[in-house]
Structures are given as C-alpha cells and as structure tokens.
Amino acid sequence: LTEIDRCHWLHPVVALQQHERRGATIWDSADGIHLTDVNGHRVQDAFSGLWCVNVGYGQQSVIEAAQAQMRKLPYATGYFHFASEPAIRLAGRLVSHAPKGLTRVLFGQGGSDAVDTAIRCVRYFFNATGRPDKKHFIGLQRGYHGSSAAGSGLTALPLFHRYFDVPSPQQHHIPSPNPYRHADGPDDAAVLASTVRALESKVAELGADNVAAFICEPIQGSGGVIIPPKGFLAAMRKTCDTLGILLIVDEVITGFGRTGPMFACAAEGVRPDVLTLAKGLTAGYAPMSATLISEELYQGIAEGGCDGTAFGHGQTYGGHPVSAAIANAVLDLYTDGGLLTNGERVGQHFEAKLKELEELPCVGEVRIRGMLAAVELVADKKTKAKPDATLRMGQRVLEHAFENGLVFRAFNDDILGFAPSLNYTEADIDVLVDRVRASISHVFS
Ligand code: PMP
Asked: Where are the transmembrane segments (predicted)?
C-alpha cells in the first residue's frame, strides 16, 4: 500500500487533506520516548502521544499485565451486578489518591465520555433530589472537555461546535483566567477576582436555581496550556459553594503526574463534586476513563430514585478488565516505580531550561508546571501582538522540529505545547529544549 492508500482507508477526509498539505505521518513502532514512522524516521516524543503516554512506550510490566489479564478474563461487563477484580481494585486505588469524599467511580472509554458521565450524574442528582431546573452548565473560554455531543458544547473551541447546535442553551462560557493576556495585566489577584466575578454574574443572570455546575481544567490544555493564577481551584470551589452550584474538575490532561502530583486538585487541597480522568490513567496502552463522584451525589442518585427509574447509564466496555489491569500496572509505575517522583524532579529542570527561551525576541511567554508546558510566540514582545496567522509560524516550527527529530503540538499557530512523559531524563529534556530553540531560531531568522 502507498502512504496515500493507507490514509484513504484510515480516515478519508481528514487524513487525505493532511496528506496533501504536508504528508501524513504513519507511525510504525515506539520505544521509550521515541516514535518511528513507516519510513524509518525516528523522533523523540515531546507530547506523550496526545498527552497520554505518561509512562513512555514499551513498559514491560504494563504489557505483561495486559497479556495476563487477556488470558485470565479478557472481558467482563461492568453493567448490572457484574464486575471484575482488576476494575474493583482500580476503583479503590483511584479513590485513595483522589481528594477525600470522592468515593464512587464510573468507568468509561475516554475523556469525552467521562465528561458526558459527569454531566449525566449531575443532572440525575438534581432531578432525583427535586431540583430539575438546575440544568445549566458554565465552563471557561478556551476550555476543552471532549468532542461528544454533550461535552463538545462545554468545549469552548468553535471548531467543535459547527453543525451540532452546541453550545446548547444550557451551556455557557466565561472568560479564561489567562494572566498573560488579561486586560488588567498579569496581576494574579486581579485575574482571579475577575474570574470569580464573571462566574457570579453568569449565575446571577441565569438564576442560581437554574445552574447545575461549573466545569474547569486545573490548567487549560488544548486551549493552549493556560496556567491560571495560584489558588484558582480553591477560589472556584469557594465561589461554587457560595452560589450553591457543583464543581466539576476535568483532570483528563492534568491527572496522573502531568503537573507533578497524582492529581492537581488533591495537591491544591480542593475536593470537586465530580472529577473526570482518562489519558494517563492507562497511559495510552488501552482506552479507559474514570468519573469520580462524591458520596453525596451518589446517594442522591441512588436514593432519589429519579422518578422511580434506575440510573440508565453505562457502556459495554466500561470497567474493561484488560484496561483496568493496564491501569493498575500504570499506577504501580507512577508510585512504586518512581515515575511521579522522577517527573517532579525532571520537571524542575524542564522549567529552568525552557524558561531560558524567554530571552528569544519572538517568545512572549513560557508557561510550565511539571511536565506540561507551552511557549507562546509573538510578533512583538512589548505589545504581545500575535504572529501573522498567514505565516503559519507554529506549524513551521513544528515541521522543522519534526524533520530534526522531535514531535510536539502547536495551538492556533502561536502556541507550542509540550507534554513529555514522566520517564524523561534531564538529558532528554536538554535534547527537547535544544531542538525547540533551534527550530524557533531557524523559522524566525
Ligand atoms: N477533557 C480534557 C481536559 C481533554 O484534554 C480531553 C482530550 N484532549 C478530553 C476531555 C476528551 O478526551 P478524549 O479525547 O479521550 O475523549
């Protein structure tokens, strides 16, 4: 098969367009932190696949756990009164790492359905407890919460809204807490205060009795790695409590050591009512998500009876035993295997080294927490003017870096995003940053 034939079968429209633009990359194999395509071109992965392969490729313990589970019990439904040992064990372990009070786990396949599950749990809860009008959801501009029919409306990227009548009349967005581009300047307290005010006034406009929940990522990933001011989650928790609405924290990207600790919300001492997890849960070795809900929500759903009907929710592959066995092996790597500790240590080196790029005239800001980072490119450092979009600077940096052995992502052509796996060494970080610097310098020269 030629490359174009393969793409045709894979994904006719998108892949072919990509192929015509710059040639599709068809991956063939992976090891450690490297990917190799079908033409034998080997690159260092600076994005953990799609922010998910947090443990790196080829981890033997994960592969063996999957093989053993496939032999023993390849499938068991998580529906009805059935379960499997690896899924039960995993649920207990997730609860033990999550903020205290998140006691119930609903498993799914990926981040999008985790967000759908969160929405459905919240709606069930309010219906079951006699508050059916509480059905409005508020998210942040630049937020990403998946591409499912419900979640795509909470996602604030217009590309995901076209033709699907989302955001629905019950889905709203308030400005993102983005210190670098905030109108009042990069003053943390001012940015935080304006986000709190925006949430308060949106709830006042809709009526608190009609608002179910506020949803946010601890750090906005797909929106361009926007790091909010310190204390953001705590401020949102407090505001939601005051307003009488629930807090959903979407840690699909930030979970599992991406920002340092296992979960960002737990590290910041914030207990959401619902926590969505995916990606690093199985580190890309299998599809899986988990939605953790509070005991209060669970009791409301279970005992409220939802007009006497059961909670009609779940999927064939929810709690899949092979995915669960993989997730258990991946969790072992984070904890006993030392990957969380390694990520935190190497993350400090990453921060010091990547920050040096701020000396380049075309770099407006370097944002980084742990192993999650972005470099924002500008045409003018003082005015923070964005580079001319028609010049596709981000794509060109990406393309140059790819040719020179490094893969990562660009957002809107002005933000370069990085999410190296937690098994990176300091020397691997040096290669990453040196190649990024060389590619930026080449493209902006
Ligand atoms: N929530 C967040 C914060 C995400 O970053 C993503 C994916 N990038 C999703 C939800 C959706 O996850 P998935 O692509 O696995 O459906």
From this structure: none
**Which numbered atom of ligand 1 lies nearest the CA of 250?**
3
Pocket test for ligand 1, best of 279, 291, 323 (most atoms within 8 A of CB): 279
* 425-444 tens-digit pLDDT: 999 999 999 999 999 999 99
Q: How far is the centre of ligand 1, averaged over its atoms, from the C-alpha of 308 (Å)?
A: 33
CA gap 329, 231 in Å, rounded: 33
Q: What is the DSSP letter of 226?
A: B
Q: Can you tell me the distance from the alpha carbon of 245 to that of 241, in angstroms, rounded to the nearest whole number?
A: 6
> How much is the ipTM here?
0.99
Tokens in use for 122?
Answer: 């919240």
Report which protein residue has its CA nearest ligand 1's atom 12. Answer: 111
Among residues 331, 386, 140, the alpha carbon closest in space to that of 248 is found at 140
Structure tokens at 388: 């001319």
Q: What's the gap in Å between 324 CA and the centre of ligand 1?
A: 19
CB 248 within 8 A of CB 215: yes
Dihedrals phi, psi of 180, to nearest 5 degrees: -60, -35
Q: Residues in the chain with pLDDT < 70?
A: 1-23, 80, 304-310
| Closest by CA position to 250, among listed 199, 214, 216 | 216
Domains of the chain: 3-59+338-444 (3.90.1150.10), 63-334 (3.40.640.10)
- The token duo for 84 is 């499997």
Ligand 1 pocket: which of 54, 215, 253 to mutate (most atoms within 8 A of CB): 253
Predicted pLDDT of residue 303: 76
Q: How far does residue 359's CA lie from ligand 1's centre (Å)?
A: 33
Calculate how far, in angstroms, residue 49's C-alpha sits from the geometric centre of ligand 1: 13
Name residue 418's beta-bridge partners. Answer: 373
3-state secondary structure string, 147-202?
CCCCHHHHCCCHHHCCCCCCCCCCEEEECCCCHHHCCCCCCHHHHHHHHHHHHHHH
**Contact assessment for residue 145 and residue 115, using Cβ atoms and an 8 Å cutoff:** yes
Write the single-letter amino acid at 377: L
Ramachandran angles phi, psi of 388, nearest 5° = -55, 120
pLDDT tens sequence across 347-370: 999 999 999 999 999 999 999 999
Q: Which atom of ligand 1 is nearest to the CA of 254?
A: 3
In the numeric block, which tokens belong to residue 260? 């340092």
CA distance 127 to 304: 8
pLDDT of residue 2: 57
